[in-house]
Amino acid sequence: MATKVVLIPGDGIGPEVSGATVRLLEAAKAEVEWEELEAKPIVGHRKEDADADPVVIAVNRVHVALKGPLTTPIGSGHRSINVALRKALELYANFRPVKNLPGIRTPFHNVDLIIVRENTEDLYAGLEHVVVPGVVESLKIITEHASTRIARFAFEYARRTGRKMISAVHKANIMKLSDGMFLESIRKVAEGYPEIEYREVIVDNCCMQLVMRPHEFDMLLLENLYGDIVSDLCAGLVGGLGLVPGANLGDNAAIFEAVHGSAPDIAGKNLANPTAMMLSAVLMLRHIGQGDVADRVEKAIHAVYREGARLTRDVGGDATTEEFTQAVIGALA
Ligand code: ATP
């Protein structure tokens, strides 16, 4: 029986990359029944407001969604829909595997990192106010509960998949209380996993080490804001934002989405690279127990990259979104 999945096409390049991904999954005969919905800003701050949102209701019911990027206005305008959905659905773990693709030339080979980003608090709580004209206060919220929960997620994942090392990334030398508690919480969890090496690294030093010696890292465990920034840095290590998939995972639901945003500069031009979205769908297929289809889709993507003749502009080719998608469909075994 087909698994129901909520499809949120998103905006900007979202409809192009999600359309390409849906076509690929149909060609691969994935057993998925899509329920397409448009995500809109959640009005109001109460839990009941979020619980009444049609997308929140649908994802809570079917438990899985594939989502394109949604633009967040800069400076003013509505709050981020992406952040609101993660909070409303308690998708506390943001999981981002960063790996080289065959044929993409980058300064480093065999990069294989897992980023685990706390997804519900930190400066993303959006608690800002004007203290007096000219002075704004923005609150960074870190709790022991959320820090322990994300640490457990990371260490459990490492144990299950044989990962060897987790580096907690922080700025506890400056934010002694908040980042200090983040680290304290992780240390307690780490004690229960003696087989996994545990390290701590200050975020600025981490950035430098990553661009010089990425192989010295295995899994990175970060608060929300550092996780956002370091994710883009890591995407750059393997060829850019068009390539890195992601998942937002909670106990009841999961939303799979690319690391990139809506890229308004190339929206509607048939130029976007749908790989990150397609690889997010690969993660989704594994999550819903369709690992065989996931493997075939992933192999087809790798085959097109290995051949290198029909790649999109962001990775040095001249193919359109559509031409690349057709190439991947043609490479399905
Ligand atoms: P946000 O803050 O919304 O997460 P971002 O900072 O991740 O967004 P994006 O809009 O994703 O920024 O992208 C930054 C730039 O990277 C874009 O302007 C675009 O040129 C490029 N880019 C991102 N995604 C893709 C893609 N799938 N294909 C090609 N280029 C992309």
Could you describe the 3D structure shown?
The chain has 2 domains: 192 residues, Isopropylmalate Dehydrogenase (3-Layer(aba) Sandwich); 131 residues, Isopropylmalate Dehydrogenase (3-Layer(aba) Sandwich). The protein contains 11 helices and 12 strands. The strands form 2 sheets. A 10-stranded mixed sheet has the order 2-1-3-12-11-4-5-10-8-9, sandwiched between helices. Strands 6-7 form a two-stranded antiparallel ribbon. The longest helix is centred in the middle third of the chain and has 18 residues. The protein binds adenosine-5'-triphosphate. The site of adenosine-5'-triphosphate has 15 residues, from loops.
Question: Layout of helices and strands, plus pairs?
Answer:
Elements: E1 3-8, H1 14-27, E2 32-36, H2 47-51, H3 54-62, E3 64-67, H4 81-88, E4 93-99, E5 112-118, E6 128-132, E7 135-138, H5 144-161, E8 165-170, H6 178-190, E9 197-202, H7 203-212, E10 219-222, H8 224-237, E11 247-249, E12 254-256, H9 275-287, H10 291-307, H11 321-330
Helix pairs in contact: 1-9, 1-11, 5-6, 7-8, 9-10, 10-11
This protein binds adenosine-5'-triphosphate.
CATH topology of the largest domain: Isopropylmalate Dehydrogenase
- Give the oligomer, counting copies of the same chain as homo and different chains as hetero: single chain
Distance between the termini: 22 Å
Based on secondary structure, the structural category is alpha/beta
Percent of residues in helices comes to: 25-40%
Number of helices in the DSSP assignment: 11
Tertiary shape: globular
Low-confidence stretches: none
CATH level 4 superfamily of the largest domain: Isopropylmalate Dehydrogenase
Helix and strand run: EHEHHEHEEEEHEHEHEHEEHHH
